[in-house]
Amino acid sequence: MAEGTEHEEIRFGYETNINKLEDENRILKDTVNQLKEELQRIKTPPLVIAEVKEIEKDNATIRLTNGNEFYVAISKECEKIKPGDYVLCEQKNLSIVRKAHTLKSFSVDKFVVIEKPKIKWNEVGGLKRPIQEIKEVVELPLKKPHLFEKVGITPPKGILLYGPPGTGKTLLAKAVATATNSTFIEIVASELVQKFIGEGAKLVKEIFEMAKERSPAIIFIDEIDAIAAKRIDIGTSGEREVQRTFMQLLAEIDGFKALGNVKIIGATNRIDILDPAVIRPGRLDRLIHIDIPKSEEIEQILKIHTRKMKLVKVNTKKLAKDMEGLSGAEIRASCVEAGYAAIREDRFYVNHKDFTDGIKRVKEGEKSEGEEKYLAMFG
């Protein structure tokens, strides 16, 4: 009886070992197959990236990244493509293999500022009239488009903020983005031209596509005069590139629906040099002047910038008179200088003299040559 039990145990142990070995063998075979597939994938020749220029039945004209163009065949397995798409081509004869869905010439979000601002209207001081206009033209259509449809009017697609530097143009754009819970996409037009020679028009197109994807959105184009200045006889390649970028901008604005969830806000210090095409009806046709703040507006700005400061014997009305002629940014700089004056004397409060010293420092060193020219021209 004991001998039969022993034989059973031996047989059971033998079968268990066989099962383990078979499992290990199966795992090893799977591993070998995976390694073979990986090796085959590594050995596969790389595909070439190209942009589709034109399509003619089963053939297409493509443009490589080096600028060369070729007339090639389209694979039957390739899904439907159109001009402007990016595709992957077989390296030897450049036949189009498949569409590159997520591929772009560059990643837009690396070159623009994208954020959800948190600046509220009560944090913007001294701009009562511009705030009212922006609310009517940008905020209301985004929040209540049905009102415009019922009345039967079409709100502007975008607005232009113009005035001296530092008067709050960017601040206003961010505040309306906060009020409408919109994605804020900021572009500095001068950098767009300098960095992307040969690619400016494409970048503009991709920025507007991204805005539609992330709508509701506000596209803020700072220094718009860098690409939208009055057109002259085209000379250098750089000037031609600026013209291409500008024409693409106009095309994108024209392609927007007025009641869509994307609004465009342009900003400039030099409205006098802007091309009339960008501010004609149907484009950035609402012009809002942001001027140097007046005495009562300066008081409002002062209250905003000093609300967290401990003030001792400070006459804000007198300070407002001393600050006449300063922009909103310079008023803020004066408050910062006053705070530094207190820190230098190891104090936690700020007095009137700190502010007068701060104003003096800003007036002597902060006013830019560009602002002085603007004030000389436009008063």
Key attributes of the depicted protein:
379 residues; Rossmann fold; Helicase, Ruva Protein, domain 3; 3 domains; five-stranded antiparallel β-sheet; 13 strands; 47% helix; extended; disordered C terminus
CATH architectural name of the largest domain: 3-Layer(aba) Sandwich
Portion of residues within helices: 40-55%
Global Rg:
32 Å
CATH fold annotation of the largest domain: Rossmann fold
Shape: extended
Question: How many domain units?
Answer: 3
How large a portion of the residues is in β-strands, by DSSP E? 15-25%
Question: How many β-strand stretches?
Answer: 13
Q: Could you report the average pLDDT, rounded to the nearest whole number?
A: 82
**What CATH first level of the largest domain would be assigned?**
Alpha Beta
The topology string of helices and strands comes to HEEEEEEHHEHEHHEHHEEHEHHEHH
Q: What strand line-up does the widest sheet have?
A: 6-8-9-10-7-11
The tally of helices reads 13
The biggest sheet, with number of strands, parallel, antiparallel or mixed sense and barrel status, is:
6 strands, mixed
CATH superfamily of the largest domain: P-loop containing nucleotide triphosphate hydrolases
| Regions with little confidence, pLDDT below 50 for 5+ residues | 367-379
Gap between N and C termini, in Å?
117 Å
Class from secondary-structure proportions:
alpha/beta
